[in-house]
Write a structure and sequence with these properties.
There is one protein chain. This protein is mostly helical. It has one domain (2-290). The chain has 13 helices and no strands. Helix 2 (24-45) runs antiparallel to helix 9 (172-194) and helix 4 (60-77) packs antiparallel against helix 8 (140-165). The longest helix is centred in the last third of the chain and has 28 residues, at 205-232. It is globular and about 50 Å long. The two termini are 26 Å apart.
C-alpha cells in the first residue's frame, strides 16, 4: 500500500514530463507492453508462469478498462491540464467505487449519513478545484482534457470493481502482467489512430527517463502491488491510495513544473479527503452493524 501511494503519487509528474514531447498513446503503449513483457519474463525465469485460456480472457476487461482507458488516457489528458489537477480528479475514485457497487447491485445497503455527507463533501471539493480555473473552461482543449480525466477515472473504477468481484485463481503477478500487456496493445492501436508521429522528432532525454521510470516503478512494481492489495483488501481500502496521490502530485508539480498552487487548491483537497474519510468510515460502520 505504501509503494502504491508513494510511487503513483510521483507518476503524474513523470507522465506530464513524458507526454509533453512524446506521442501520448504511444508513450503509454510502450510503457505497458514493456512492463508486461518484463514481468512475464521474470515469472518464466522463476518458473512461476502459468497462463490458462480462461485466465487470459478474464484479464481482458481490466486490461482495457484500467490500463488503456484508465491509466493510458489520463496520460493523454495531462497534455492539456496540470498534473496536480489530474491527481485531484483521480482522488474521487472512491466515490465512483461507492456508486458502482450500489448501482450494480453488489452492495444494496442503504448509505448511512457518513456516506451521504462524504459524497457531498467530495462534490464540493470538485467544485472548489475548478474555482481558480473557470476561465480555462472556455478553452476547448482544457475542458476536453478535464472531462477525459474524469472518464478515465471512471473506467479505472469499473475495472477495479470487476477485478475485485471476478477474481482469478491465477498468480497475482501473472494477472498484472497480462493486464498490462493487453492494455498496452489496445493503447498501441489507439496510437495508430490518434497520435501524431511527427512529434517523435521532439522526444527529449527527460521523456525517455520518464518512460523508464514509469515502466519499472509505476507499472512493474506499483501496479503489481495494487493488483495484490485489490485481491487481499476490501475495495474501499484498496482505493485509499487515491487520497494520498494528490498531495505528492500537487507538490511535485509546484516544485518542478511551476504549476500553480493556491489556498483554494488546499481547501478543495481538504474537502475531497474529508469526504473520502467519511465514506470509508460509513462503510466500516455498516460492516460493524452487519456483524
Amino acid at each position: 500500500m505504501a509503494i502504491v501511494c508513494i510511487v503513483w503519487g510521483t507518476t503524474y509528474l513523470a507522465l506530464r514530463v513524458g507526454v509533453v514531447a512524446f506521442p501520448p498513446f504511444l508513450f503509454s503503449a510502450i510503457r505497458q507492453i514493456s512492463a508486461g513483457i518484463i514481468l512475464l519474463a521474470a515469472l518464466g525465469i522463476l518458473g512461476k508462469l502459468k497462463i490458462r485460456k480462461q485466465d487470459f480472457l478474464l484479464q481482458l476487461i481490466p486490461g482495457i478498462l484500467m490500463i488503456a482507458l484508465g491509466n493510458g488516457v489520463i496520460g493523454w489528458s495531462e497534455r492539456y491540464i496540470p498534473s496536480g489537477l489530474a491527481a485531484l480528479i483521480v482522488s474521487v475514485l472512491p466515490v465512483y467505487v461507492v456508486a458502482i457497487n450500489f448501482i450494480s447491485g453488489i452492495d444494496r445497503k442503504r448509505p448511512n449519513y457518513f456516506i451521504i455527507w462524504g459524497l457531498i463533501l467530495g462534490c464540493a471539493g470538485i467544485v472548489l478545484m475548478f474555482r481558480d480555473n473557470l476561465n480555462d473552461l472556455f478553452n476547448p482543449e482544457y475542458l476536453l482534457g478535464m472531462l477525459i480525466a474524469f472518464g478515465s477515472c471512471l473506467a479505472w473504477a469499473v475495472g477495479s470493481v470487476f477485478v475485485k468481484h471476478k477474481p482469478s485463481e491465477n498468480n497475482v503477478l501473472t494477472n498484472a502482467a497480462i493486464q498490462m500487456f493487453i492494455g498496452g496493445i489496445v493503447l498501441l492501436l489507439m496510437s495508430f489512430a490518434l497520435d501524431d508521429y511527427s512529434e517523435l522528432k521532439n522526444v527529449t532525454t527527460e521523456s525517455i527517463w520518464a518512460l523508464v521510470y514509469l515502466t519499472l516503478f509505476g507499472s512493474v512494481l506499483a501496479y503489481s502491488c495494487f493488483v495484490y492489495i485489490l485481491k487481499e483488501l476490501p475495495i474501499g481500502v484498496a482505493s485509499l491510495y487515491a487520497y494520498v496521490n494528490p498531495f505528492i502530485a500537487l507538490f511535485l508539480g509546484f516544485l518542478m513544473l511551476d504549476e500553480s498552487l493556491t489556498w483554494i487548491t488546499f481547501f478543495a483537497l481538504a474537502a475531497v479527503l474529508a469526504g473520502m474519510y467519511m465514506i470509508n468510515k460509513g462503510y466500516k460502520l455498516q460492516k460493524l452493524i452487519v456483524k
